[in-house]
Amino acid sequence: MYVAVKGGEAAIANAHSLLADRRRGDRSVPALRLDQIVEQLALGVDRVMSEGSLYDRELAALAIVQARGDMIEAIFLVRAYRTTLPRFGYSKPIDTGTMRVERRVSATYKDLPGGQLLGPTFDYTHRLLDPELAASADVAEPLQREAEAQAMPRVSAILAREGLIEPDGEMPQDHVPGDITREPLEFPMARDIRLQALSRGDEGFLLALGYSTQRGYARNHPFVGEIRIGEVELELDVPELPFAAPLGTVRVTECQMVNQFKGSAKAPPQFTRGYGLVFGQSERKAMAMALCDRALRASELGEDIVAAAQDEEFVISHSDNVQATGFVEHLKLPHYVDFQAELDLVRRMRAEYEARENPAKAEEKREAAE
Amino acid sequence: MRGQEARDQAERKAAMATLAQSSGDDIVRLWNEASLPSQAELLRGPETGLVTLRGRIGGGGAPFNVGEATVTRATVRLPSGQVGHCYALGRDKQKAKLAAIADALWQDPARRAEVETSLIAPLRSALTTAQEKRRAETAATKVDFFTMVRGED
Amino acid sequence: MDIAAQSIEGGFADSVFNAQTVFRAVMDAMARPGSVQPLSALARPPAPLSATAGAVALALCDNDTPLWLDPALHASAAVISWLGFHSGAPLANTPADAHFAFVATPAEMMALDGFSQGTQDYPDRSTTLILQVSDFTSGAPLRLEGPGIETSATIAPAQMPRHFTEQWKQNNKRFPRGVDIILATSEGLACLPRTTRIKTMEA
Predict the structure, then answer these.
(1) What is the pTM of this model?
(2) Which positions 59-78 of B are in contact with C (Cβ < 8 Å)?
(3) How far apart are CA B90 and CA A56, in angstroms?
(4) At a CB cut-off of 8 Å and minimum separation 6, what does A163 contact?
(5) How many CB atoms lie within 10 A of CB B5?
(6) Residue A34 belongs to what domain range?
(7) How far is B68 from chain A (nearest CA, A)?
(8) With contacts defined as CB-CB under 8 Å, which chain B residues touch A199?
(9) Cβ contacts (< 8 Å) between B77 and chain C: which residues?
(10) Residue A359: pLDDT over 90
(11) Are the C-beta atoms of residues B41 and B32 closer than 8 Å to each other?
């Protein structure tokens, strides 16, 4: 229960100016510029863009500064900003097959067309802290090598030639892609809506669920068919132009998870797939999303639902960290009247309990009180 | 004639794509260097809004919504009557306005060559150089597998 | 070129303040059914879309609100492209898919129950109808009662849909579902929300 209580305005105003001071910190240290964050904390910026569900590097960087580096707070700020803007439309679906690839690896095929490109990865680093970074040492220019003009088909297309993998996910002919920013969630939901929720879902939550599927809770034998990171062109159909308006390019991470599948009453033995597509360079998130997408297809594929990661309502209802933080954090707001009511209730129950357990003592107490 | 129209549209779209991908600073610098006219009536915007970005399930399947991106658009009319449009990712209103004027100038047969050579070509060449550099840097991280021979025949 | 020119001109001169002005007028008219809220011509749409109806479209409609146009409006390519350019709203496939419906000739319009009536869970998902009428005085008088009206209010819009009083009675019966109506003239607008009842006039 909420009760209007006046007071606290001065305290709130002072707390906010104290926040501003602490956020700035020691004035002898130069203030952070947004371009420094965009350039040097790029993966943090990417996380805020993907979970804030808004592709805009500078805004994400601003949110990170304003939130003092608290990522969920930054995501919250970005989500709030989004709601102030009108929507011009829905883009044409991006084609990840024509991506300008900056990283591309496959764990299933060594020699795939286009090759394995490691790109700027943490993989194979030794995870030793590097004191040179603290000393702001100069960084050498990266090496270059002549790039071969070779097409880079998605690995799923290669597997499809053998007929052993299910096709890309199709929806019924007249299906209009659902949009969780316009329509309330309803369960069970179509896969397209689930993917939208997963793409903006909390990385930690999805990572833990993905991990749980590997540890035997809804095991589905995953392999990374392919991860690719790079820029894709974005286009929007508008009535005033005779062609789709080119908007520029966005960087996305795509993960095709390939899963062995023994077959069921609904489908023959084959490889099935989970799909991840996330803003920016967000590899772990794209992998976790793909694992969860596959696990959530349990009923579609006729599998028994035995684990949390397969429970659509559980996963999707709890994957949004803005929603989650709102409900958890509201607990610290005044609940004085609520608590008074509970206090009265517990006192009464305790009195009844004592009367039951120890009637003599309770009687004594009552008499003493009188 | 129809072939010519299709080629014109493809070229116009390519010019708009170059403008959309270029930075506002680069556009302003080249604009001033070439002394392109910036006089135009604003018919809409420049205004910032959202475009919902769509992907495809499995990469090539049914479309789904991934998330939004900020986009700024503008529509202008030149004193000579041509109407130009711009849609570009981000929130740079100055860029959107100039790009819309560039699109309008591009449609004027008398100005097209000037816009192409003094604005679009240098922007395109800068973008291509940057993309080639990235591609070459990525190519240097390509894994060259070699097979270890174990044992003897 | 002509249609192209007509379709990009005549938007709001000041999109934020003009939209707020129109929104305020619609809100007040909805809150006080039957009252006439004056509205100057803030938009200049191509005929037969009227200035007031056009301004309402620019204030209320966007990419997420499919529109339905009556045959008179739908016949004008200029109207369709003007609405598309300035509001971004797509055309609805059927009247039942429309969030807003614009009607230039209400006397010839289809029945109210052909539009979306909303659902019991989401009654807000019904169609809002914008009817272009010539004035609020020369038609058959409608005596209005209901929330937002102290005792009763009377307007006499011309021309209204056929059998309007009977149709409106049916609309009332569907509550909380049902359509809402915005009546637009060149001077301003008045509203008939679904909560408003029309009291039958005795001769």
Answers:
(1) 0.89
(2) 75, 77
(3) 6
(4) none
(5) 10
(6) 9-82
(7) 5
(8) 66-67
(9) 8
(10) no
(11) no
